[in-house]
Amino acid sequence: MSLFPSLWPRLRPLAWLAGLFLGISTATRFALLLAAGDGVAPGLGNWGRVFGLGLVYDLATFVYFAWPLLLLLWLLPRRWYNARGGRWLLGGLCFLLVLLLVFVAGAEWTFWDEFQTRFNFIAVDYLVYTNEVLGNIRESYPIGPILAGVLLLSGLLFLSGRRWRRGSDETSTFAGRSAFAALWLAASVLVSFGLRSDDKERGANEYVNQLAGNGIYEFFAAFRASELSYARFYRSLPEAQAFAELRQLLQTPDAQFVSADPADITRDIHADKPEQHLNVVLISVESLSAAFSGAYGANPSLTPELDRLSGESLQFTRLFASGTRTVRGLEALALSVPPTPGESIVKRPRNENLFSLATVFNAKGYESLFLYGGYGAFDNMNHFFGSNGYQVRDRAAIAPEKIHQANIWGVADEDLYTLALAEFDRAHAAGKPFFAHVMTTSNHRPYTFPEGRIDAPQGKRESAVRYSDWALGNLLRRARDKPWFDDTIFVITADHCASSGGIASLPVFRYHIPLWIYSPRHVAPGRFERLLSQIDIAPTVLGLLGMNYRSRFYGADMFRLEPGRERVFIGNYQRLGYLRDDQLVELSPGRRLASVRPDYEYNRPQPPLAADPRLSTEAMAYYQTASWLFSRGLLAAALAAPAPVAAR
């Protein structure tokens, strides 16, 4: 300010806004630090990064945030600035900026409570799907008191700064104001090119990395990075080497490549048992962490129905989800591909006619269904499944009088299952085997469900888990009376875990989800103890059915994959993880590659390891080729039927 003494009276509101912005940002950061609890150990190192680096991001964000006020201070003529109308205009803009700051601070607290991170891709998605998001907020929080509190606090902060904003401008010139605006523009350009969101992500504690950021900055950084080119941002192999490596990784005892083209991953899969056209019901339960279930060690257990089912099912004990959002789970279950960077394929353009699980079942004469308890326009689900071999039924297919309870995300699970049973009855009556992917919604905030089902309060995650478990038990009890039950396989898993954040960048324990395969007539009970990736579920189920088919899946039938070759893919939009041999290779933008020791059970730091060149090469080969093939339309469903086994 001293460089422009004649401008000081005019720029006093800008100085006031800067102080308020930094104060609210610091207070927000401190509140989130308290919310992180023992995730951030006290100490000069952690606190220095959180608040020192955080100040850098706050100042950078303020350069952008202050532009509306700066434009007004620059362009408003002196006589207008000094007039009552100018003061009202200035005051109105300042109040709106204060209101925005307070609102964002509250939103950040809510977002951190749900996801243990600053704003990211999820926040960007929520801006797109305002109906569901605003409805969820209305149903989850006391909106009236919250808005009243935001307005009250904003008003108090605004009034407390009125002395700073006052003043007459008798000395500024348009040339002087323009020079200052030019300097501010130069600072904006410098920040744009000199600072990136991931510059703060160099520490081992992901909570610290996130707390050092600024929510507003992170939101727009996530918006810009919704599409990430693997070739541009990630460490890569020469293309020929990547595909040569991939062909070795995809070669399994049950597979034979159909082409010598190194970029063609099409394989004929040959089963080792007679083919059975059994019905398949794949249920992906919203946010069902393995840690909720007594069958996976929870004490007390929130899933008594599934615990009882475990003794009658084939239970997989070491399954890990591909991502932290529903669309990542749907992508893994339907397409059997690793989680490529940026948005899920479910939401990307040009995602039609891909090779999917429905592709295989439809070729075998099945009717393939996607059944969802909410409105499938959310997250582009209806378009994706409808364009990839599935018939889609969502909440719109359920008559209002048949809905026991609903919230903004969807109907109660029991009502979705009633729709599913009716669809199964219809397909069976038509003489067709059916494959159905059923996606539930009850275990989602605001955690509401029909009264009288369980003895638990509304609005609690633990209650919603218990209700989801009850609804599954109720579904199976109703299904046992159906004529198609004996010839049906139920595959019960989760789309992702209930929580996603942790001390580590990719906290492995957060990705652990359950899997039961239940069919009393056809699947022997037992426990599968080997490591399993979510993308392996589809080929494993097809293997249990003894199906021969032509495949473009990246996943493997875990009963045919040789021991020692197990691997898992996990990701969080930007960071891609490859887990094998008790090492986690992490690929991230900036062509960075690191290796850490995974923690499968607790929220603890994952210590760095010397990168294993073999595992690093495998990780790059998988992720690089998956991105390359999708971007070029080479994961398409148009495949010729496999040649008969006897002809080979």
UniProtKB/TrEMBL annotation:
Keywords, comma-separated and alphabetical: Cell membrane, Membrane, Transmembrane, Transmembrane helix
Subcellular localization(s) per the UniProt record: Cell membrane
Source organism superkingdom: Bacteria
Membrane topology: Multi-pass membrane protein
Keyword Transcription regulation: no
Gene3D superfamilies assigned: 3.30.1120.80, Alkaline Phosphatase, subunit A
InterPro entries: Alkaline_phosphatase_core_sf, OpgB/LTA_synthase_biosynth, Sulfatase_N
Spans traversing the lipid bilayer: 51-76, 88-112, 143-162, 174-195
Domain Sulfatase N-terminal: residue ranges: 279-547
Keyword Membrane: yes
PANTHER family given in the database record: LIPOTEICHOIC ACID SYNTHASE, PHOSPHOGLYCEROL TRANSFERASE I
Name of the protein this chain belongs to: LTA synthase family protein
